[in-house]
Design goal:
Elements (H helix, E strand, L loop, with lengths): L2 E14 L2 E14 L3 E5 L6 H9 L6 E6 L8 E4 L12 H11 L5 H11 L15 H13 L5 E5 L7 H17 L3 E5 L3 H7 L2 E6 L2 E5 L11 E7 L15 E5 L2 E7 L3 H12 L6 E4 L2
Parallel strand pairs: 3-7, 3-8, 5-6, 6-7
Antiparallel strand pairs: 1-2, 1-4, 8-9, 10-12, 10-13, 11-12
């Protein structure tokens, strides 16, 4: 396969409180045109840093990113996790139209309609985007990242806020675009089920280094224990909220719920808590 970009001996460190922390150390790997690459690893390992370096958002301390055509950089789009990539006082469609003008997208009306249909956004695309749910916001962000027909799409936690049905659609959409438009995709995600389904190859970022791993190895690298404490919860939390891989402990008038922040069952539990408007006393990310 043809290589579309290469990272060569990338080093990146950050200074915090007069201490220098090495994030990436002599990292080198190639990405082939038309591949879908999943990137996993512990929190703070440098996964998002890699996406930012490829996009040009940050500069490495040393090393280089080399592209297929050294005289012409491929068209790269980066969708950052948790970032606000659109104007909240505009509708979704107005956002797409505004950015299509900025990007000089050809046949932009058709492109917008195609993306709206592709992402099943008809029901809300003409509503003010500031009123969108998290899942709607994520769909609009994905549409914006695809608007200008990128050669390389970089996705940071693209499934955050999406339900299982929408995640299934996202997998299909990315695979279809990969085939039809030969789109190269690099995605960082703690949702290892999504990573395993979408990826041709999987890269592990750990201890400053990058290496290829098998799909069977992904789950053990993405665990973030979390505890949620409810006080004077009464009977509000019913058996209907019990999910697999979510542990419960009673301490007096406290209910302590423990799980993995990035486990989809735990994420669904949080959604149920929010839907039932049950008060949370404290949230602790365990070490």
């Amino acid at each position: 396969m043809e290589t579309i970009l290469s990272l060569k001996n990338i080093n990146k460190s950050y200074k915090k409180n007069k201490l220098i922390k090495d994030i990436l150390v002599d990292c080198s790997f190639d990405i082939n045109k038309g591949e879908i690459i999943g990137i996993v690893g512990p929190n703070g390992a440098g996964k998002t840093t890699i996406l930012k370096i490829i996009s040009g958002l940050i500069i490495p301390n040393s090393g280089s990113v080399e592209y297929e055509n050294s005289t012409k950089r491929p068209k790269i789009e980066l969708l950052m996790e948790g970032s606000r990539s659109f104007y909240w006082n505009l509708t979704g469609r107005q956002n797409l139209e505004y950015f299509s003008v900025l990007f000089n997208v050809k046949n932009h009306k058709k492109r917008i309609n195609d993306l709206v249909n592709l992402l099943d956004m008809d029901n809300f695309i003409d509503s003010i985007s500031g009123d969108y749910s998290r899942g709607m916001q994520q769909k609009l962000s994905v549409a914006l990242s695809l608007l200008d027909h990128p050669n390389i799409l970089l996705l940071d936690e693209p499934t955050n806020g999406l339900d299982e049905e929408t995640i299934d659609k996202l997998v299909k959409i990315l695979k279809d675009l990969n085939k039809v438009e030969n789109l190269t995709v690099l995605t960082v995600s703690h949702d290892t089920n999504f990573i395993n389904r979408i990826s041709d190859e999987i890269l592990l970022v750990k201890d400053g280094n990058v290496k290829k791993i098998n799909k069977s190895e992904t789950a053990k690298y993405n665990i973030q224990p979390i505890s949620i404490i409810f006080e004077n919860y009464g009977d509000d939390i019913s058996k209907s909220l019990l999910f697999e891989n979510v542990e419960y402990e009673n301490e007096g008038n406290k209910l302590i719920v423990k799980g993995d922040l990035f486990d989809m069952n735990f994420f669904r539990f949080i959604q149920e808590i929010d839907n039932n408007k049950i008060g949370i006393k404290e949230v602790i990310l365990d070490k």
